[in-house]
Specification:
16% strand, disordered N terminus, D-Maltodextrin-Binding Protein, domain 2, 440 residues, 11-stranded mixed beta sheet, single chain, 18 helices, globular
């Protein structure tokens, strides 16, 4: 009897094991099926911006995935804007592109020429998605659309704004609530704000306009104020040797070479906010994307204002757009479209502006309770928005990085004193024309 009892017990154990195994297999199959139902997208994001941006992006992605469990978004922090577009295009040519990326609005023509992106008009399916391009400020759409199509959706966009140290203004006998309104006033204020020790060494510069990183962008503010565009709207004809462009560069150089109110040579983009915090510069120009950074770190009261005028006021827009890469599957394009639409609702556009200092990219974002409370508490937040009325599209051409590098080289040669403005810009014009010849 004993062997028979053992056999029945063994059979029961085996049957139980089989049942457990079947259940485990069923759970595993269901899990695999659930995973197979998910759509996964890689999302390249540039990290070369102020503040704890990666944590913010991670938090947004986590909330999106909680609300959209069928979509996985994988943020990949790709470096600077230049790094991001280079990596995205390299991956595209290798057949392994991300499905979504934030890249400069000015990269639009290059991305179109490479066939790397798809227009949002072609992948929008819902009424909300189809209406999305009309939701944003026209100034931001100026270099987001081409050929009747929308290629980029504004996300972290900016203008250049002026910051000033109110304590330094009071010390110099200037009204701390009002920045200079014209080029002439900038020079006048700069002289009053520049400080030197007994040996004649400068301890605080009156003015600081960075000339590394994005020198063409800062320069475009000056050319806009002198009422000249750096290139045609279709990105094929440069205007680098126009007399008004030469005049703008001559003015920039004169701040250091003649007026002695600006540091000589190349001024670093990345250290300009810190120079401001540390009292090394009384007035600076930088992206409004540094607004939150400066608010958190400046140990003094500061002012924020529009850039000054010469023939007119003006600043180029700047910053990054969402782009959907063309190698994505149809399901991934739809997932990317869903994520972009979610990220740019009025409420999220407002919160992104509050969290980072970038301009909330759509007018209705400024009507949200959160943004209205923020502006009431911190009125400078509205300066960049108000400046959009005077803003122009950032310089954008075909083969944009090559063309802007040509201009950057000319600017830096002039600012370091190795070339004069007119011949340097004539050389840049000739090289840019050569690069763009085939696109005209």
């Amino acid at each position: 009897m004993m062997p028979r009892i053992l056999t029945q017990t063994a059979r029961a154990a085996l049957a139980g094991a089989a049942t457990i195994g079947f259940a485990a297999a069923a759970i595993g199959f269901a899990t695999a099926a659930h995973a197979a139902d998910k759509t996964s997208i890689d999302f390249y994001y540039p990290v070369a911006v102020g503040g704890p941006i990666t944590k913010l992006i991670d938090d947004y992605v986590a909330r999106f995935e909680a609300e959209n469990p069928a979509i996985d978004v994988n943020p990949i922090y790709a470096g600077s804007y230049q790094d991001t577009v280079t990596k995205a295009l390299t991956a595209f040519k290798g057949g392994d592109a991300p499905e979504l990326a934030v890249m400069l609005s000015t990269d639009m023509y290059t991305l179109i020429d490479e066939g790397a992106i798809v227009p949002f008009d072609d992948i929008a399916t819902t009424p909300e998605q189809k209406a999305l391009p009309d939701a944003f400020y026209p100034a931001f759409m100026a270099n987001s659309q081409a050929g009747g199509k929308t290629w980029g959706i504004p996300f972290q966009r900016s203008t250049i704004v002026a910051f000033w140290n109110k304590d330094a203004f009071r010390e110099a006998g200037l009204d701390p609530e009002k920045g200079p309104d014209s080029w002439a006033e900038y020079v006048d204020y700069g002289h009053k704000l520049t400080k030197r020790d007994d040996a004649g060494n400068v301890t605080r510069w009156g003015v600081q306009i960075p000339s590394s990183g994005f020198p063409y962008w800062l320069f475009q503010a000056l050319t806009t104020q002198n009422d000249i565009e750096l290139a045609s709207d279709d990105g094929t004809v440069p205007h680098f040797d126009d007399p008004k462009v030469i005049e703008a560069l001559s003015f920039w150089r004169s701040l250091s070479a003649d007026e002695k109110i600006h540091a000589p040579g190349i001024v670093e983009w990345g250290t300009t906010p810190r120079d401001f915090f540390e009292g090394k510069a009384a007035m600076i120009w930088t992206t409004t994307g540094n607004l939150t950074n400066i608010r958190k770190n400046a140990p003094f009261d500061f002012g924020v204002g529009m850039l000054p005028a010469k023939a007119r006021r003006g600043s180029p827009t700047g910053g990054g757009n969402f782009y959907v890469l063309s190698q994505a599957t149809d399901a991934q394009k739809q997932a990317a479209m869903t994520f972009v639409t979610w990220m740019t609702t009025p409420e999220r556009a407002a919160q992104w502006g509050i969290d980072t200092g970038y301009v909330a990219v759509r007018p209705d974002a400024w009507q949200t309770p959160a943004m209205q409370a923020y502006v009431k508490d911190f009125p400078p937040a509205a300066v960049a928005r108000d400046q959009l009325e005077h803003s122009v599209a950032e310089l954008s051409t075909h083969e944009n990085q090559r063309v802007t590098q040509t201009l950057n080289n000319a600017l830096q040669a002039v600012l370091t004193g190795t070339k004069e403005p007119a011949p340097a810009l004539a050389e840049a014009q000739s090289e840019a024309q050569r690069i763009l010849r085939s696109y005209r």
